[in-house]
Task: structure prediction
Amino acid sequence: MKIMKFGGTSVGNPDRMKALISLINDGEKKIVVLSAMAGTTNSLVEIADLLHAGDASAATERNNILRSKYHQVVDELFATGNFKKSGHDLIDSHFEYIRNFTSGSFTKLQEKSILAQGELLSTSLFHLLLHERNIKAVLLPALSFMRIDKDGEPDSFYIEENIERELKNYQSENIIITQGFICRNAHGEIDNLKRGGSDFTASLIGAAINASEIQIWTDINGFHNNDPRFVENTKVIRELSFDEAAELAYFGAKILHPSSVNPAREKNIPVRLKNTMEPDDQGTLITSSSILQDYKAVAAKDGISVLRIRSDRMLMAYGFLRKVFEIFEAYRTPIDMITTSEVAVSITIDNSDFIKQIAKDLKELGTVEVEENQTIVCVVGDFRTEKTGSAPEIFEALNTIPLKMISYGGSPNSLSLLIDSSNKKEALRLLSKHLFN
Ligand code: ASP
Ligand code: MG
Result:
């Protein structure tokens, strides 16, 4: 059985939804995971933000705008009066549910229930569409099997056991539709896998049922060797290893949610990235074995802050870095990149929620300097320790750009650099010119 996950733009309007039918209705058994229609989750976040701010009337207004958009979708999606009526009723019930939250106090938990409506709507509408076309399909609620534990991590044991039990009821069904993104938490309340988490859903389900392949369908032909938003003539990479894909996804390539690599890698299930607009294109295939190449791709991640800690106490001391790391751990802030000298250490983070507190605590250890608006540029390729020539080539390409940190030797398949975000576009362009042309 394979998993086919379709992102927000792939279900972004009635025509795109209709186009999915031929992709999934091929007689093979599959689980179809859908995101919310493009833009919906953002709108739901806006509504929730307004409710948090206590502005119920603005939230209601925003809710009504989204609601009428969906009624329009229903009008275009269905061909017959009966199904149009069922579609409109469905929309009304979801938006009435959201409207209930506009009176009284508003909590984080309620916010999660509101955010869940996007995927609940897209899957119900698509299921109804298949019904209208007389195509047999089952709608399997993700809330009946997808679960995170008290640390917010997927509860693999629970997921496996529950999806297996659910699927036993539908052994003769070929098309099983479910929601991406949404789940329950350790207390059974509605929660989610964080923004962009539908890819993660697909991968978790794939791992849970030992799928033959996990397909992630978007609106681009796969991973490109550089960011097509900033660099011209980028090319699709046809094959990647799990490690290479994880680095690219983490360091900025928007096509795949970084968490989604792990579950697939653990069960060694191939992940294929495909384009709904060009379904015949082979896309990018991610497996455990992939041919090494000097350079495969470049990706960039913005919104990075760097903290530089300098201390004479670090000289020939042991245990100093542990103290530094404990401070980051206390604020549950992951570290991306780190470089050390004998008396100083530079550390980057992408979540600056607690940066002030972290800097304050670090000052107990030495002098601290903080710089924001940084970008990590990651070059993925063959960086095994016995290899020569790659680092000089990269530095030569970037000899006009100030390099603030260099991380080399940490991974056999990448080299990362820290630069000012204002230099990102130029750096990406130079790397493409020197490494790929
Ligand atoms: N709809 C959710 C989001 O926009 C999840 C996803 O699309 O992956 O973040
Ligand atoms: Mg996505």
